[in-house]
Amino acid sequence: MKIFAMILMSVTAVMAQAETCELTINSNDQMQFDQQEMTIDSSCTEVKLTLNHTGKLAKNVMGHNWVLTQTADFQAVAQAGMTAGLDNNHVPVGDDRVLAHTEVIGGGESTSITFSTSELSADGDYTFFCSFPGHWAIMKGSFKIS
Ligand code: CU
């Protein structure tokens, strides 16, 4: 019982420290995100991001995902994503430059991810984008920590 109480106390302590911030972004059949800038507060320890695809086109035609990298890495990762293929969600496998990513979804679908902010810093320069081939030039924005 003593051990159980100790575990319960430590779980409670971890929960008290976690601050999960929720973000939602929409995408459509016109190859657009509905936001060019997303901001989280510096108190967020985790981000729960939901991507909605409000269009009708299938994911192999107009698929979208949400990928986060440092701005300096964004174009190289986007280009690597083109050859990674849909089976890998157009994200290069095992690539440390990818800070977070969702799966690729098609029209009418939604997906969510939760990621830690421990690798992000308030003075960092981050870009989110869709890595579906040909989309990143338009479907991109800045991700900020305030
Ligand atoms: Cu896209």
**SSE class:** alpha/beta
Biggest sheet, in brief? 5 strands, mixed
Name the hetero compounds present: copper (II) ion
Strand order, sheet with most strands:
2-8-7-4-5
Give the distance, in angstroms, between the N- and C-terminal Cα atoms.
43 Å
The CATH topology corresponds to Immunoglobulin-like
Beta-strand proportion: 25-35%
Mean pLDDT: 92
CATH homology group: Cupredoxins -  blue copper proteins
Counting H and I runs of at least 4 residues, what is the number of helices? Answer: 3
* Secondary-structure element order, N to C: HEEEHEHEEEE
The figure for the number of domains is 1
The unreliable regions are none
CATH architecture: Sandwich
Radius of gyration: 17 Å
Could you tell me the number of beta strands? 8
* Fraction of residues in H or I helices: 10-25%
Q: In CATH's first tier, which class applies? A: Mainly Beta
